[in-house]
Design goal:
The chain is an alpha/beta fold. It has eight helices and 14 strands. The strands form two sheets. Strands 3-2-4-5-1-10-11-14 form an eight-stranded mixed β-sheet, sandwiched between helices. It has a six-stranded mixed β-sheet with strand order 7-6-8-9-12-13. Helix 7 links the parallel strand 8 and strand 9. The two termini are 22 Å apart.
């Protein structure tokens, strides 16, 4: 059983023409011709506009979209619902709030169970950070802090590396000081595709976008990871 995670550095459902490429890539990783995909918007407080944008985007695709809303009371038979999904897509927002609520509802354990059974995990921003051991988050307003996350993937993660340039120096400083583990930062529009917890592919919906791997050895090392543009990657897949 393949275990897959596709973590996106950042984008939005209304970001045309870029988000459709990322959506198509995620959907093509399922063995189903029309997979069930569930949006989890906990990090945004299950904002109704965000949920609406998800349906607007995914209803155009060969899939069966649905959503789980903890804030709006959709909490009956959570495990049964989640385990019936082929793909989970976690939206952006406040990662700290997301993790606290998931733990309170036991959703963190349910998601890990679904992952072990082959459900694809995906998401952007908070929905990228959450899968790693640690993430750089602005969950506290006007601050960028280390946050302990689910730990499915080793190391740390930082999204929005070009969209929020202040992240660049802070992420590197925290790794260099030993406060954070080494990891991968992603520009907006870049996706990290892990299979069985190993990074297998890096894709991008836009030109001139990158991912960066940082490790602390004797000094901080930086490795630029060049992604495949999704126009090419999707053509190879299908």
């Amino acid at each position: 059983m393949l275990r897959q995670i596709i973590a996106l550095g950042g984008c939005g459902f209304s970001d045309e023409p870029y988000i459709p490429l990322l959506v198509d890539y995620i959907l093509t990783q399922s063995s189903k011709s029309s997979p069930k995909i569930c949006f989890i918007g906990t990090a945004s407080g299950d904002a109704e506009g965000y949920i609406k944008n998800f349906y607007t985007c995914f209803e155009k695709k060969d899939c069966i979209p649905g959503h789980l809303s903890l804030f709006l009371g959709q909490t009956d038979k959570i495990q049964e619902f989640i385990l019936d999904q082929d793909i989970l897509f976690v939206g952006g927002g406040n990662t700290r709030n997301l993790l606290v609520l998931w733990k309170e509802w036991g959703l963190d354990l349910i998601i890990k169970k679904a992952y072990r059974r082959g459900t694809i995990l995906s998401g952007l921003s908070a929905g990228s950070i959450c899968w790693f051991e640690e993430g750089l988050t602005n969950s506290v307003p006007n601050q960028l802090n280390k946050l302990d996350c689910l730990g499915i993937l080793q190391g740390s993660n930082c999204p929005h590396f070009d969209g929020q340039p202040e992240r660049q120096s802070i992420y590197k400083e925290k790794i260099e000081s030993g406060e954070m583990k080494g990891g991968i930062a992603c520009d907006d529009g870049v996706g990290l595709h892990f299979i069985n917890e190993k990074l297998e592919r890096i894709v991008s919906s836009q030109e001139n976008k990158h991912a960066f791997q940082y490790e602390m050895k004797e000094t901080l090392t930086e490795k630029v990871l060049e992604p495949e543009h999704l126009n090419k990657a999707l053509k190879e897949i299908g």
